[in-house]
């Protein structure tokens, strides 16, 4: 079943809305509809129908976010007469779930003049070191501005420190390139803009996240498989495709999408050492292998990471690199190196030569050594079932190998 929210604005935004110190152009009446992600759904289909007769009014397909905003001027009936439901679709637009139960379209009024954030940092044991922010696409928005603040605790917003400001084109998520290592409370906010970069919304309500550097037992250094996200369109700000979600052991996510082992090594000091975890889970290498970087080079980098861990009294725990499914990787315009399987085998053989290593490769691979097709949409990243296997396997192994360290979680 899909969890859902819905909203109906009872008046258009005024032409001179100067709240938040901005002037907002007049916008149409709109309804904001939200739902929870469907496992493995790449896109969604929204169905609007008459609440009394059940007759379909409109259907909207190719929705790649977990929500949609409707211009009420395009509806032939008032929202109070209508209902909505949604279902998940796969990469090719085929249904992979039943429609959700009908919900009344005009049931309640919420903040329609601001973008609606959808990140789930509050459901995570720790905020990822590199946050990914997401929101429901704002009606008629062409661009967005994001701001990230450090909250000084004074309860005076003007005292909060602006850390970063970003501009992005029409989208519904943003991968922050900044790492937040200073302990404290932060928040992010987003504003919708038109093609001329003029505001068409107020700033979204602050979405808070916190950073702690105290008593971090376990952290995970890796690439996008560690960073999270899946089914092509669902970003790491959601929990479903983050393998840490499925770990009984709380794990600080120090993954960064796109990383090679060289990049992981390069950022070790600035990203890992501020937290000084007792155990560091290290999972990387598939970006090297699929791009044609040799297993030897990846091994050198991972070996250097291990040495840095030992030099800093951190226990390194290696995890095998995941297999891939080349045919589906065409969906994200990636063609792996011809000898990727041989190089991956060499890399994983080295990883497994250490007694403290964890093997997730065998659980994800089919009898041809490929990532099981049912586990992936894009051929590179495991989706929900695959991430669950990774998270549970790592969690079980850590609890078995390091019961004393993890006994007071």
TrEMBL record:
<dbReference type="Pfam" id="PF13472">
    <property type="entry name" value="Lipase_GDSL_2"/>
</dbReference>
<dbReference type="InterPro" id="IPR051532">
    <property type="entry name" value="Ester_Hydrolysis_Enzymes"/>
</dbReference>
<protein>
    <submittedName>
        <fullName>Lysophospholipase L1-like esterase</fullName>
    </submittedName>
</protein>
<dbReference type="InterPro" id="IPR036514">
    <property type="entry name" value="SGNH_hydro_sf"/>
</dbReference>
<feature type="domain" description="SGNH hydrolase-type esterase">
    <location>
        <begin position="220"/>
        <end position="388"/>
    </location>
</feature>
<dbReference type="InterPro" id="IPR013830">
    <property type="entry name" value="SGNH_hydro"/>
</dbReference>
<dbReference type="InterPro" id="IPR013783">
    <property type="entry name" value="Ig-like_fold"/>
</dbReference>
